[in-house]
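**Backbone description:**
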Amino acid sequence: VLVSLICSPPQNYPLYIRSVPTENELKFHYTVHTSLDVVDEKISAMGKALVDQRELYLGLLYPTEDYKVYGYVTNSKVKFVMVVDSSNTALRDNEIRSMFRKLHNSYTDIMCNPFYNPGDRIHSRAFDNTVNSMMMQVC
């Protein structure tokens, strides 16, 4: 199970959210939105040191009984959150980090599209394909 979300910096509303399976989608929305508070806490705790880094992988935000929640923040303060099933022990920190890099690269491609208005919901086949390939890798 993987949920990926990209939030706009000031308002923290979702630009893109995807979950597999879709039965517990509301539960995942709640988990992702509560994790944004943890992301903000980590960003404020790291302060200027975080701004100076090129890669802003936050790592494991918090584990629950069923899921592990990971976070990533871009230089422009866009937050990426992934929720992964806790029973998946094959995923290591390096794999999660590379998945966030792929998401970030795909997001950058969307931002470079002259027809995309920043802040709008993301409707992109290329981005969907990236997320789907990551979900297949995890599940």
